[in-house]
């Protein structure tokens, strides 16, 4: 039990090729998965992701789909604008304060 569990990772091209093999060969997911040395559940999930969005499937580690990247940029911009607004509110309150 002291062994670390190591997860295998596969290149995008390999995943796409495996999915296309399933779709074009007429063989079952289980048969192709066995031939490739991967679990049939893994291949089934790859196929599902590919069919949902073939162009943006399997973006890789640290990469996002274009829509997700755009959303992330907008979230950062919103956070920056809120911070600037809060700073301006504090500055206005400070400079409009009546001296005692």
Question: What's a concise summary of this model?
Answer:
The chain is mostly helical. It has helices spanning 12-25, 29-36, 40-52, 66-95.
Structural description of this entry:
With 100 residues, this protein is mainly alpha-helical. It folds into 2 domains: 9-61, Arc Repressor Mutant, subunit A; 64-100. It is built from 4 helices and no strands. The chain has helices spanning 12-25, 29-36, 40-52, 66-95. It is rod-shaped, with a radius of gyration of 25 Å.
How are the secondary structure elements laid out?
Layout (H helix, E strand, L loop, with lengths): L11 H14 L3 H8 L3 H13 L13 H30 L5
Q: Please state the CA-atom Rg, rounded to the nearest Å.
A: 25 Å
Low-confidence stretches: none
Tell me the CATH topology of the largest domain.
Arc Repressor Mutant, subunit A
- Average pLDDT confidence is 85
Residue share in β-strands: under 5%
Counting DSSP E segments of at least 2 residues, the number of strands comes to: 0
Helix proportion: 55-70%
Major beta sheet summary: none
Number of helices: 4
SSE ordering: HHHH
Q: What's the number of structural domains? A: 2
| Mass-distribution shape | rod-shaped
CATH architecture of the largest domain: Orthogonal Bundle
CATH class of the largest domain: Mainly Alpha
């Amino acid at each position: 039990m002291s062994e670390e569990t190591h997860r295998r990772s596969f290149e995008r091209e390999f995943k796409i090729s495996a999915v296309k093999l399933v779709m074009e060969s007429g063989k079952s997911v289980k048969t192709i998965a066995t031939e490739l040395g991967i679990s049939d559940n893994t291949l089934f999930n790859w196929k599902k992701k590919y069919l949902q969005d073939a162009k943006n499937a399997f973006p890789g580690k640290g990469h996002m789909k274009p829509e997700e990247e755009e959303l992330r940029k907008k979230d950062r911009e919103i956070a920056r604008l809120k911070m600037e607004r809060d700073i301006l509110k504090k500055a206005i309150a400070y400079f409009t304060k009546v001296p005692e």
